[in-house]
Amino acid sequence: MTIHARVRARAKEAGPVRPIHGVAILVSIALLVSVAVAGVGLSLAVFTSQAERPAVFGSRTLFLGERTTPAFRVGDASSGIEVDRSSSFAFAGDGRTTTTSAWSTAFAAGRYLEFDFNDSLASGVAISAATFHLRLASSGAGQACFYFEVRRISTGAVLATHGSSGSPIGCVTGTTLTTFSTSVTSASTTSIANDLRVRVFGRESGAAPTVIDLATAVGTTAHQTFTLYPVMFRDAADTTVDVVPWGLDVP
Q1: Which of 61, 93, 174, 204 could join 103 in a cystine, given CB atoms 3.0 to 4.6 angstroms apart?
Q2: What is the pLDDT of residues 149-207, one digit of tens each?
Q3: DSSP per-residue codes, 17-81
């Protein structure tokens, strides 16, 4: 047998020749396809559609200027036990009251209480509603009555009178504290509210003192609701003027 014949015989024994390079190419393509599919799946998982949420923004008018005010609700724990040292005129029903000097049995121009309020508001803003709240009672069994004037602190000018000696705003018999709320349209702007004084005229049927639990002015503008508190109190119920400033407002 010749050499060529032996080669052909061995080739027949080994069987047909396999296309190794073609198999490698098919495997590579399959791997690329699987990677591409995996990449598409990852993209779909990340970039999902979501409903848009509207953004809502609010704003308030900002007013230039410096405004300061003292605190009126105060807790004093210097002794280790907290004690309420708040203004006696600022909050109703807190157990803190002020007893005036003795009134006469009839109204008189020289017998009054006077409250000057803090000036914590931006100036030049219209007030849509302003109210004076006064909570009081007699110190005994008599009847206490009052009416009041709205004034400017800076000039003392009377802006309005609410009630009169013949027609008081309200009366209280006995020691049950009662709140009276009166609209004060003359406080029509924050500039006036920042310069607000209320003078209360009173009488007591037993010529006794009265007890005051609340004296505040509240109002509403287009931008806020506010409460003003007395920083100065004058007691002239017995005709002798006693000036009592709010301690935290004293320089």
Answers
A1: 204
A2: 999 999 999 999 999 999 999 999 999 999 999 999 999 999 999 999 999 999 999 99
A3: PP-HHHHHHHHHHHHHHHHHHHHHHHHHHHS-----------------S------SS-EE-TTSS
